[in-house]
Design brief:
InterPro entries: AAA+_ATPase (IPR003593), ABC_Ni/Peptide_Import (IPR050388), ABC_transporter-like_ATP-bd (IPR003439), ABC_transporter-like_CS (IPR017871), Oligopep_ABC_C (IPR013563), P-loop_NTPase (IPR027417). This protein has about 325 residues and is an alpha/beta fold. Helices cover about 30% and strands about 25% of the residues. The strands form two sheets. Strands 6-7-8-3-9-10-12-11 form an eight-stranded mixed sheet, sandwiched between helices. Helix 4 crosses helix 5 and helix 7 packs parallel to helix 8. The chain binds iron/sulfur cluster (SF4) and magnesium ion.
């Protein structure tokens, strides 16, 4: 399948008062292919959201993308003007956020918000756009779409608002959909419905889906490939099945230990002690060293490079070498 997103050496830093620099995203590589779901997982503060906002070019001061490439369908977004980027956002790449109430405009009807996107990107007439909006609302599961179109966000439940957001996101047939904790604010049964819907739309439209989550249960259910993020860096990357069966990085192992046992073979309940260090004061060596149960001398001196154990399995940890 075609590669839709190819991120290389991405660095997004925040230049704080008192001359501190927060290296929120520090040398991230990631790819997403058409029809593929790639999960970016990690605790909050690991840099997942900043990665997605960097891809969308939505980083504001004091943040800055200081290095790297973000290629969407072969075009490096980092070289585009604001105007060109505005054309791409919502058209070739769309994003769904955790809380649709903040992404939807409360003073416009659902219909207005969909037709605005269609009129802007697809140059449709009002009438065409309204019909397409009704079709989209039907597609995402509104049985009475011709009524919903004239309703306001506050008239919908949280799950229905997220469905409306999905309708807006897919309205222009994007090649890439980025979903940042899309269901965290919803209750569990609604979560599954929304994720199923995203999955179905992904397949139907052959989009690439970058799913950002802290929830390994969601990863287990929906991802094809997984990137584990810690301290602004990818610490492990592999196909989902491999990751759950044979995790390599101590951080990944820790994350998996805190999952209920249906997702793993042994029945252990563990949690990783401590918290993600702030991005302006990472430890000198491995960024996980302050929490790692296997840390050795070397781990406190320098940060390991990511190495490939296999063509599709990579890890950033001194416990492994290329011959493993
Ligand atoms: Fe732990 Fe060392 Fe591996 Fe870092 S490099 S994860 S501290 S063993
Ligand atoms: Mg986040």
């Amino acid at each position: 399948n075609e590669t839709v997103l190819d991120v290389k050496d991405l660095k997004t830093y925040f230049f704080l008062d008192d001359d501190k620099v927060a290296r929120a995203v520090d040398d991230v590589d990631l790819t997403v292919k058409a029809g593929e779901t790639v999960a970016l997982v990690g605790e909050s503060g690991s840099g997942k959201s900043i990665t997605s906002l960097s891809i969308m070019q939505l980083i504001n001061k004091p943040g800055k993308i200081v290095d790297g490439e973000v290629s969407l369908l072969g075009r490096n977004l980092l070289t585009l003007s604001d105007k060109e980027m505005t054309k791409i956002r919502g058209n070739d790449v769309a994003m769904i956020f955790q809380e649709p109430m903040t992404a939807l405009n409360p003073v416009y009807t659902i219909g207005n918000q969909i037709t605005e996107v269609l009129r802007k990107h697809k140059k449709m007439s009002k009438k065409q756009a309204r019909q397409r909006a009704i079709d989209l609302l039907k597609l995402v599961g509104f049985p009475r779409a011709d009524q919903t179109i004239d309703e306001y966000p506050h008239q919908l439940s949280g799950g229905m608002r997220q469905r409306a957001m999905i309708a807006i996101a897919i309205s222009c047939d994007p090649k890439l959909l980025i979903a940042d904790e899309p269901t965290t604010a919803l209750d569990v049964t609604i979560q599954a419905q929304i994720l199923d819907l995203m999955n179905e739309m992904k397949a139907k439209l052959n989009m690439g889906l970058l799913l950002i989550t802290h929830d390994l249960g969601v990863v287990a259910e929906y991802a094809d490939r997984v990137l584990v993020m810690y301290g602004g860096q990818i610490v492990e990357e592999s196909p989902k099945k491999v990751l759950f069966k044979d995790p390599k990085h101590p951080y990944t192992e820790g994350l998996l230990e805190s999952l209920p046992s249906i997702y793993k073979e042994e029945d252990r309940l563990g949690t990783i002690r401590g918290t993600v260090p702030p991005a302006h004061s990472f430890p000198e060596g491995c960024r996980f060293s302050s929490r790692c149960p296997h840390a050795m001398d070397q781990c406190f001196k320098s940060n390991p490079e990511i190495i490939h154990l296999d063509h599709d399995h990579a890890v950033r940890c001194y416990l492994y070498s290329k011959d493993d």
